[in-house]
Predict the structure.
Amino acid sequence: MRSLLIVGALAAVAAVAVLIAGPKLGGGGSEAAPNKLADTKLAPEPWAADPRYDPANSSESSAPAAPTQPKPAPAPIDPKTGLPAASAGTNGSFEPPSPAERRRVYTATHPVGGNDSALLLNRTALAPPSAPDPIRAMISAANLIVGQPYRWGGGHGSFQSKGYDCSGAVSYALAGAGLLQTPLTSGAFMGYGEPGPGQWLTIYASPTHVYAVIAGLRWDTVGDARGSGPRWHPYDAYPHGFAARHVPGL
C-alpha cells in the first residue's frame, strides 16, 4: 500500500511539471534544420571588382594591339615518331600531374575563336592581356562570387546575395561590365543581345538554364557531381538545345 502511495505521489508531481512547462513548440520539440546559407557572406556589388569598367567613359576603340612578333621556327620533327623532337627526352609527351599536385595548384586554358584564352588558376580566372575592358570587368566580377552556394532565385531580387542560380550568376558577371542593369531569367536571356556566338563572350540560354563562355572559360552553376554554385569550368560547352547570344562588338 505504501508503494502505491509513493508511485501516485510521483505521478502527481510529474503531471504538475508538465502543466507548468507547457507543451513544446515545433512538432514534438525537434529543432529546425540549420540554414545552410546562414553563414554565407553576402556578395558585394558586381561593379565593386577591379578592373572597374565604366561604359560612359570607355573609348569606342580598344587599346592598340601590341606589335606583332615574328613567329618562332617550328621544332624539328623526329622522323622515327613523326613528333616534334623533345629537349629532355620526353618527345613532347604530356605527363599529367599527381592528384596531390592538382589539388595544390590547378591551371587550365581553353582557347576559343582564335583569341587568347583566360587562365584558370585554382578557382580564379585571369583575363588575357588582349581581352577588351568589358571582358576583363566581367571576369573580375564573376570571380567575386566563385564558391557561393547554389540558390534557386539567388541574385534576382538584388545583385548582392548569399547564393546564386544560373541566371543570377550570369547576370552578376554582365553587370560587372555595365552590360546589364537588372538581373534576367534564363528564358529572358534567349532574347538578350544579338543571335549567334560572339568573339569573346557567348551566352547560351534555354527556358530552364543559362551559362556563358567568357574568354574561353565556361561560367556556369553546374558541371560537376555536386553542381554547387557559380564557378569556372575549362571544359567544352554543351550548346545543343540552347540559343547562342552575344553582345555586339564582343
In short: The longest strand covers residues 201-205. The chain is about 20% helix and 15% strand. The CA atoms of residues 56 and 178 lie 9 Å apart.
